[in-house]
Amino acid sequence: MAKVTMNVNGKSRSAEAEGRTLLVDWLREGLRLTGTHVGCDTSQCGACVVHVNGDPVKACSVLAQELDGAEVTTIEGMANADGSLGTVQQAFQDYHGLQCGFCTPGMVMAASALLKENPQPSEAEVRHYLEGNICRCTGYHNIVKAVMAASGQQVEPVAAE
Question: Where is the 2Fe-2S ferredoxin-type domain (predicted)?
Fold first, then answer.
């Protein structure tokens, strides 16, 4: 076991980690930040995406000890300073970009990374960028609308059901 310290969501945080402890487990079990989900344990689904030093990373694919000293942002760090939903989170709510919510943290983190890299992506670019994230509920249509809306582009409203 070794003490691992990272700047997580703007605060210095420390917890013990074995050499084989994955970042996702360190966040969830060591820091009790349970918004980052474990979906597949094989780096396929994207439910565990977080930002490490500003880049999207599947937290099930990297060891916590390797990131000692890193800057990490989780879904808990995506809210505004006043606690209200961040832009991408609000768009997911407004455009019904979630159903069961299991994939949502990873989708929001991936979408935020895309918008940082490409502030006005096309629909095709959004779909391509999110290929590493699996949603088993929505069919992606409203997720794509939410990302487009978060980018400030005009999006057709979602019809009330």
Answer: 2-78
What does the alpha-carbon distance between residue 52 and residue 73 come to, in Å, rounded to a whole number?
7
Tally of CB atoms within 10 A around 42: 9
Q: Burial level of 24, CB count in 10 A (0-12/13-18/19+)? A: buried
Q: What is the pTM of this model?
A: 0.92
Domains of the chain: 2-77 (3.10.20.30), 87-150 (1.10.150.120)
Count of CB atoms situated within 10 Å of the CB of 124: 9
pLDDT tens for each residue of 76-91: 999 999 999 999 999 9
Tokens of 118: 């490409």
CA separation for the pair 9, 7 (Å, rounded): 7
The answer to whether the CB of 31 falls within 8 A of the CB of 40 is no
